[in-house]
Amino acid sequence: MKNKHLALALAAAIALPASLAHAQAPVPPQQPRIVVTGEGEATAAPDLALLSLSVMREAKTAREALDANNDAMAAVIAAMKSSGIEDRDLQTAGVQIQPRYNYTNKPDGTQDAELIGYQVTNTLSVRVRDISKTGEILDKSVSLGVNQGGGISFANDNPSATITEARKLAVADAIAKAKTLAEAAGVNLGRVLEITDQSFAPPPGPILAKARSFEAADAVPVQAGENAYKVQVNVTFELK
């Protein structure tokens, strides 16, 4: 038993200096580096118009208001389809039924609430793939009963090519900045160690540079403009 304990003690004594030597080994210095942010932007003409159209009707009873709203919205949807809008591009965004009251003040400062009717609002989201028809569709929808909403924005069905172009411009911008900084500091750029990027979709409205107007006779004038896609990259370079 004593021999066994002696062997374990000797093994620990031999291993301890080795582990200390490993722990105290110098850490190799990190290669000097520089991190540069580049930005790129590319634009594309939109190929989708996104509409939000609402029909509001009022009546004495909720049933009467809903029936009137249903008739008006059915006419609007039929008009959308006759203009070439497919079923997949028509989506009900919400239906609201709200009571309406008439409030009268009483001598004691309180109010009497008299129910005078109901209001029904049906909202339809529409994707227009032929944006040259946007003004015509807006005009037709109002003629058939749309009396609220009218929100409009423009988008691109597949912006990947535009975003790719913005990425290339962002990387080129980062390289140019890095070269300028390295030259000013009297050092040389080495290889690229890391690249990260972040893409920014355009805001819900158009950028009106190079705007195109789609306007038929008696139609709502519409400016489609361009959508701008922005990319920001962080590039890490070695320094020599």
Automatic annotation (TrEMBL):
Top-rank taxon: Bacteria
Keywords: Signal
Entry's Gene Ontology BP terms: DNA damage response
Residues of the signal peptide: 1-23
A Pfam family per the record: SIMPL
Signal listed as a keyword: yes
InterPro entries per UniProt: 26kDa_periplasmic_antigen (IPR052022), SIMPL/DUF541 (IPR007497)
PANTHER family: PERIPLASMIC IMMUNOGENIC PROTEIN (PTHR34387:SF1), SLR1258 PROTEIN (PTHR34387)
Protein name as it appears in the record: SIMPL domain-containing protein
